[in-house]
Amino acid sequence: LLAISDNMFVHNNSKHGRRAKRVDPSEDISDSSDVAVTSNPVIKAICPSEGWTQGGTSIIIIGENFFDGLQVAFGPTTVWSDSVQIITPHAMRVTTPPRHMPGVVEVTLTYKSKQLNQGNPGRFVYVSLSEPSIDFGFQRLQKLLPKYPGDPERLPKELILKRAAELAEALYNSQQFTLPPPRTPVDPLSHYASAYTAQFDTNNGKFF
Fold this sequence. Notes:
Its main location: nucleus. The protein is of the alpha+beta class.
């Protein structure tokens, strides 16, 4: 006679019939009840959060659960994993790809062609050098720069930035060091910086 009890409990304590399974972040964990749930990568901040439409801006993405092999997409454009530097599980460095027009794009993370943070993407703003406000700023900046023979009426933006940086450096050096008058001809930019500083001092710290 075989008796069956409702309270019977069978425990399998064998260590030989189980094998640990490596979790692939791209797998749908809802289909595997015996696999521990892992957290998907999350973007919390992007610094800087804007850059030129020409691309090439180096940014740091702050978040959680970053790992080697992640791909970063700016809108429809994907930056492949070999161009993504994982610094720590909480930070990565990426260079932005170019975009044909300014505007806001979603920044998403993918792994093996599967999007991981679709519900909580980051945001990045593409800015164009030809926007009216920026173009007006370049025009104002050009008026403060020295003019050279042969200069066109409107300088290229790259040249304006280069001369502005040189002028700022010359202004800084003229404030930091007091040197005797040189015996050789003075560099035009240094001479302009000295005159610029003198006019600034004459107006009691205000330049008009």
